[in-house]
């Protein structure tokens, strides 16, 4: 009986050691139309506005709007291992501090914050020329905690 107990302990330790750590070089999987935004509790349905981050513990936090992510992070002060945002044009994931952010009251985002990310600075500047607004870094967006419209309700597509 004692051997079985020791064997069970060894197997448990081996299994826990084999658990995979979060790969911060890859964004978490999002199930659009199913996952719920941490900030507003609404369904995340538009990839080009979605954002996410991994906590230091490896948990994923998902958002339907970059401005909502900034507000949530400011309110909860979680240890964050990696932030991810979608490119507004291609919908590809971008590590947030490598993106260029356009902030404009003329951009209709799910929660009305008017913040979008682009992987290319020239495309960001072209979008500003088209809709107005300003170019910001990720740090500036996070420090401003949700610039753009103060509205906190989902906008119509």
Overall number of domains: 1
Quick one: how many beta strands? Answer: 7
Gyration radius from CA atoms, angstroms: 19 Å
Helices and strands, in order, run as HEEHEEEEHEH
Please state the oligomeric state of the protein chains shown.
Answer: single chain
Strands in their spatial order, largest beta sheet: 2-1-3-4
Structural class: alpha+beta
How would a crystallographer describe the biggest sheet?
4 strands, antiparallel
Question: Mean of residue pLDDT?
Answer: 83
Strand content: 15-25%
Percent in helix? 25-40%
N→C terminal distance: 65 Å
What's the total helix number?
Answer: 4
Shape: elongated
Unreliable sequence segments: 14-20, 146-157
Short key terms for the protein model shown above:
157 residues, alpha+beta, 4-stranded antiparallel sheet, 3-stranded antiparallel sheet, 4 helices, 7 strands, 29% helix
Question: Would you give an account of this structure?
Answer:
With 157 residues, the protein is of the alpha+beta class. The chain has one domain. 29% of the residues lie in helices and 19% in strands. The protein has four helices and seven strands; from the N terminus they run αββαββββαβα. It has helices spanning 2-18, 66-76, 121-131, 138-144; strands at residues 51-55, 60-63, 80-86, 93-95, 100-103, 115-118, 134-136. A four-stranded antiparallel sheet has the order 2-1-3-4. Strands 6-5-7 form a three-stranded antiparallel sheet. Strand 1 and strand 2 (60-63) form a beta hairpin. Helix 2 crosses helix 4 (138-144). It is elongated and about 75 Å long. Residues 14-20 and 146-157 have low confidence and may be disordered.
């Amino acid at each position: 009986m004692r051997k079985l107990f020791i064997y069970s302990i060894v197997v448990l330790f081996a299994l826990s050691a084999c658990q995979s750590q979060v790969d911060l070089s890859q964004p978490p999987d999002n199930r659009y139309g199913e996952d719920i935004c941490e900030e507003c509790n609404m369904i995340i349905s538009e990839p080009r506005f979605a954002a996410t981050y991994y906590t230091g513990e490896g948990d994923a936090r998902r958002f339907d709007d970059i401005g909502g992510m900034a507000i949530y992070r400011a309110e909860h002060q979680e240890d964050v291992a990696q932030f991810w945002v979608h490119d507004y044009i291609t919908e590809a994931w971008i590590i947030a501090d490598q993106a260029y952010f356009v902030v404009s009251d003329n951009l209709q985002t799910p929660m009305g914050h008017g913040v979008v990310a682009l992987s290319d600075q020239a495309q960001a500047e072209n979008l500003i020329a088209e809709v107005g607004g300003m170019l910001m870094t990720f740090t500036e967006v996070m420090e401003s905690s949700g610039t753009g419209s103060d509205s906190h309700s989902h906008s119509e597509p």
